[in-house]
Write a structure and sequence with these properties.
This protein is of the alpha+beta class. It has helices at 67-75, 80-95; strands at residues 2-16, 19-36, 39-45, 48-50.
Length: 110
């Protein structure tokens, strides 16, 4: 499976302590692609990442941010593995449904 991150928007505070233009939230989309034979599926997930406070020694000015740096913040976040896992699982389920057994099902036999 392959994934791509698209940064949709960033919310920033005008000032936070001695720092200005401090990014607080990153809205992004994960596109996961899975394929099997001629069946290709895409799954779109749109999470947000809330950033923690940053020490002034580690601060990067808003104007100096790059897509690569912001993507590194996303993939380095504490919930990244779980977020990607869920997106990949959804795409995988569409391509390989036989690998997923539903533990319980509701319904009537008639």
């Amino acid at each position: 499976m392959k994934y791509n991150i698209v940064i949709n928007d960033m919310n920033r505070l005008s000032s936070s302590g001695s720092l200005s233009n401090v990014v607080r939230t990153i809205d992004y989309t994960i596109w996961v692609t899975a394929s099997r034979d001629d069946n290709v599926t895409y799954h779109k997930k749109e999470p947000s990442l809330n950033l923690e406070s940053v020490a002034s020694s580690d601060f990067i000015s808003f104007e100096s941010l790059t897509q690569e740096k912001v993507k590194a913040w996303i993939t380095g976040s504490t919930n990244w593995n779980e977020t990607l896992y869920r997106a990949e699982k959804h795409a995988s389920h569409s391509v390989w449904p036989e690998n997923y057994i539903t533990p319980s099902t509701d319904g009537l036999p008639w």
